[in-house]
Amino acid sequence: MTRRESDYPFAAIVGQDMLKLAIILCAVDHRLGGVLALGDRGTGKTTAVRALASLLPQLDTVKDCPYHCDPSKSSVQCDTCGSKQTHDTERMDAPVVDLPLGVTEDRLLGALDLERALIDGVKQFEPGLLAKANRGFLYIDEVNLLEDHLVDVLLDVAASGWNMIEREGMSVKHPSRFVLVGSGNPEEGELRPQLLDRFGLSVDVETPGVIKDRVEIIKRRDAYDRDPVAFVKKWKQTTSKLSNRIKKAQALLESVEVEDHVLQLIAEICIALGTDGLRGELTLIKASRAHAAWRGEMSASIEDVRVMAPLALSHRLRRNPLDDARGSVRVERALGEIFSKRDAA
Amino acid sequence: MDPVPAPEPKPVDAYSSREQWLDALRAICFLSHSLKYKDTPPMSIRVMANAGPVLDCWIETLKIAISDREIFSLPSNVDIDGLVGGVDLSSTLALGRKVHKQGLLERADGGVLLLAQPTVLEPAITASIANALDDHQTKTERDGVSYKPTVRLACVVIEADEEQISAPLMDRLAMHVDLRSVAIRDLEALECSPELTAAVGELCVDTDENNLNVIAETALAFGISSIRPSQQTAQLAGLSAGFNGRSKVEKEDMELAIRLSLLHRAVMVPAAPENEEVRSEDQPQLNENNELDAQNEGDVSEIDDLTVEAIMANLPTRILDVLSKRQKTPPRSSQTGRVGQNKTSFKRGRPIASIRGKPTSDKRVDILATLRASVPWQKLRNAERASKAWLPIQIRAGDLHLKRFKKPSESTTIFVVDASGSTAVNRLSEAKGAVEMVLSESYARRDYVAMIAMKGREAEIVLPVTRSLVLAKRTLSGLTGGGGTPLADGLKKALILAEEEMRKGHQPSLVILTDGSANVALDGGAGREQANADALDMAKHIAVSGHATLVIDVSKLVGKQAKAVADACRSEYIAMPFANATSISSAVDELQVANAGH
Q1: Which of A28, A40, A229, B388 is the most buried (most CB within 10 A)?
Q2: Which of A41, A98, A167 has the CB atom closest to B168's CB atom?
Q3: Around Cβ A280, how many Cβ atoms within 10 Å?
Q4: Is the Cβ of A3 closer than 8 Å to some Cβ of chain B?
Q5: How close does chain B come to A149, measured CA to CA in Å?
């Protein structure tokens, strides 16, 4: 793909440490549930998410499979791949699929191939973006402007990992496991709570207030605009270092322990914040584990929890009309209380 | 914002209307250069202007400047299909292969997209345009068509009122020009601006680190958090230097760039106001200091007082004049905005794209869209029915499309206040209190309000639709009671006003404060019986219109009359003896919630 040669390099993003961390951890653990980047315009949300493509390690896939099934996991293969014992394999870049505004349902889910139906009168399934995104990332810019009925479809598939289409007497089922990455500006429209909850991590994105950083952003962006290829080349080494570290963390992830006292702290935090349901707790456990793996540690520590709690929980808090502080601020406040109590004890 | 026409902004001496016109011409130069040469991204312009010869002349100049490139006007009712394209169904059927329909963005590639009514556009439309401006590309994933055309275009947005344009789009408009105080004589004096013909084609100059620092500091001092404007300023400064044949960005380039791209975004003035007098006298001295500062710069990381002072000194006074003029209208608070709260509905509102679905009693089938959806599959379906009789068209359940409508997001509360003699004696002041309370809440929500007074021979619109709290309060307190109760006429005028608001895209709700005892008929004649009959008739009209309505009974002893009016309107009803200002205001709130949830 030529995209990787011309995308803004992830490593060249100035500041935005939490957003970068959240994206990296989702690349380390795909089951984390994705990232939601919320923030003002001009904060570099989109740049950071698009740059993600340059980081992702390559995938082993079944050759010519439109859903790029994993040859080693028969439980999550499409019907065609599942029916075969052995597969020809190939390697591909992990997909990062952009969901543009104005996408129609047939292109999202896949539909009958219009051209084949017209010319030959033949029913043939034309895979949609959910097929393309399988085993990769699905990015929705301006997620709050997405039509409700598309959000519903998307949530169904994200929850089950399978996309099922029944049209024209044809029924197709294919795996669609993707990391959902959304960005949006809350000022432009509220996000539905169901959609909010679906994202594993959320980040409030702000522009750096430090002049040096701002100048650096302008300079790098300018350099990139003038000669993208040269700019990407300049950052290639740093980017591949990051990419390698992600690979290492992925390998380490399964063996990272979360000890009981850490689990207890996580439960304590969730109770103090009154987060709805268990999704918050589970996500915080996974996120702490991923963070430990990213640091190269074999077990998740209190510090991992402390860093990840705002990312994993801030979008799951009940609205409190009397407290209009941002979610992350409320999480920090609760953390402060819990830790000072612990110190006292 | 106050919709009452503000007095024409007086030209500030320092930043004269003639210079504004010059800046507007320079903006054209930069736009056309950035379109032709790819050393900077295309520079878009936001134009504040009222329709008139000045604007016409500016657009003509723009046309000349971009010569071989076209200007595409964006129709205000454009939908996403028209903007990003999709499948061209008729050609597809005729040619037997998939033919894609070019969207407006794609057709405008290399040219200028003109938005004359930016305020009525859907957020999804402005966001698509904003993305195209960012990425120089659009992405179409519609109706079986998937492609990504390159679109390199500049946008020109024309606005008559400030602060209404969608913020994401505004963030991407590099330059801001204001033609509102430019007079025709200003154009005449500068008709053949030499800048228009000269220097086009010069390369954009790099903006050096020192100047980038100044830009970043200025942006922060003005409270501009988005990084995009700073970038645009740097590019504009480079363009300006190039245009003037300089190899290095000079102070005047910086001034121009800041004027064009940063000033109008300022949300705060960097200096304490009490320094105002002192500063202008001290300016030369500070200026020198600043230049010294600038030379040993590099470790500037925080804005301390010194840098702010330096920035202030660095800016020409006229920039500050422009700014302080602007400060009179406080920047819109981002948190209270109600953008994006649009509701879709299957029943009422402005039609939007239909979706696939199953019809129910409250969802109507969009026949055209359903046919469109079924047409491509006819060959397939007829083949399947080979053995059976041929059908001209086969529609399957999956083809069914449902009509959808967009519910307007802004609401207008129309108060119909009974100010007749009978009310005046006892309840008028209480009614006023209630209205005032609702008013202040409407204001917080940025709703519109209007008021109709019923007194004497006929009802009168005492407060035309406005967002101004001050105006509404003044009208209210000036409202005196007396005379008859032309209830029917009041309801009629309220209904007409409500329909007008509906057409404007606002969601009207009616709040009627009356004791229900009408004594002036619709034709202006006296007589209780006829007056009451007319009033109930009009009330039924309101019921049919379906506007959310609340009747507040202001009679001293709760009578049946006001209740009868409420029943005829099929409206909510509360009685004043049990109502205080708070409960009325919460009832109005509920009314609006119900309205929004329709």
Answers
A1: A28
A2: A41
A3: 24
A4: no
A5: 9
B128: closest CA among A150, A107, A142, A46? A142
- pLDDT tens digits, residue range A97-119? 989 888 888 889 988 887 787 77
Same domain flag for B573 and B516: yes
Write out pLDDT tens, residues B203-235.
Answer: 677 788 888 888 888 888 888 888 899 999 999
Q: B38: closest CA among A203, A225, A127?
A: A225
CATH, residue A270: 1.10.8.80
B350/B428 same-domain check = no
Chain B stretch 466-495, residues whose beta carbon is closer than 8 A to a beta carbon of chain A = none
* Chain B (89-118) residues lying within 8 Å, Cβ to Cβ, of chain A: 92-93, 96-98
d(CA B438, CA B146): 50
Q: Are B39 and B204 in contact (CB under 8 A)?
A: yes
* A25 and A160 within one domain: yes
Residues B508, B493: Cα–Cα separation, whole Å:
13
> Are A145 and B123 a contacting pair at CB < 8 A?
yes
Give pTM, 2 decimals.
0.69
Greatest Cα-to-Cα distance within chain A, rounded to the nearest angstrom: 77
Are residues A281 and A195 part of one domain? no
| Residue A184 and residue A303 in one domain | no
Contacts A123 to B, Cβ<8 Å: 380
* Shared-domain flag, residues B511 and B556: yes
For A320, other C-beta atoms within 10 Å of its C-beta total 10
Chain A residues lying within 8 Å of B340, measured CB to CB: 144-145, 187-190
- CATH code where residue B188 lies: 3.40.50.300
Q: Which two tokens stand for residue B461?
A: 């619109």
- For residue B304, give how far its alpha carbon lies from the nearest alpha carbon of chain A (Å): 12
**Is A217 inside a domain boundary?**
no
Q: List the B154-159 sheet strands across, edge first.
A: B71-73, B112-115, B154-159, B45-48, B175-178
Tokens 């595409």: give the residue: B72
Residue A135 lies in a domain: yes
φ, ψ of residue B4 to 5 degrees: the values are -65, 130
Q: Which of B150, B184, B199 is the last residue of a domain?
A: B199
- Domain boundary residue, one of A174, A205, A236: A205
Suggest the residue from A3, A45, A188, A216 to mutate for an interface test with chain B (most B CBs closer than 10 A). Answer: A188
Catalytic residues of A: 279
Closest CA to B532 of B556, B558, B559: B559
Is residue B231 within 8 Å of residue B67, measured between CB atoms?
no
What element of type H or E holds B101? strand B100-101
Residue A264 in domain: yes
Q: pLDDT-based confidence at B293, cuts 50/70/90?
A: very low
Question: Cα(A42)–Cα(B290) distance, rounded to whole angstroms?
Answer: 29
* Cα separation values, A267 from A37, A193, A290, A316, B509, Å: 25, 22, 18, 14, 48
Both B363 and B484 in one domain: the answer is: no
Domains contained in chain B, number: 4
Domain final residue pick, A170, A205, A240:
A205
Q: Does A28 share its domain with A138?
A: yes
Sequence-distant (≥ 6) Cβ neighbours of residue A235 within 8 angstroms: A9, A11, A12
Q: Is residue B578 part of a domain?
A: yes
The span from the CA of B487 to the CA of B535, in Å, is 6
Phi, psi for residue B77 in degrees, rounded to 5? -100, 20
Domain range for B28 is: 9-199
- Which of B407, B432, B448 is the endpoint of a domain? B407
Q: Are A301 and A256 in contact, with CB atoms under 8 Å apart?
A: no
Task: Give yes or no: residues B220 and B361 share one domain.
Answer: no
What tokens were used for B18?
A: 């003639």
pLDDT tens digits, one per residue of B332-365: 333 333 333 345 666 666 667 778 888 777 778 8
Element (H, E) at A179: strand A178-184
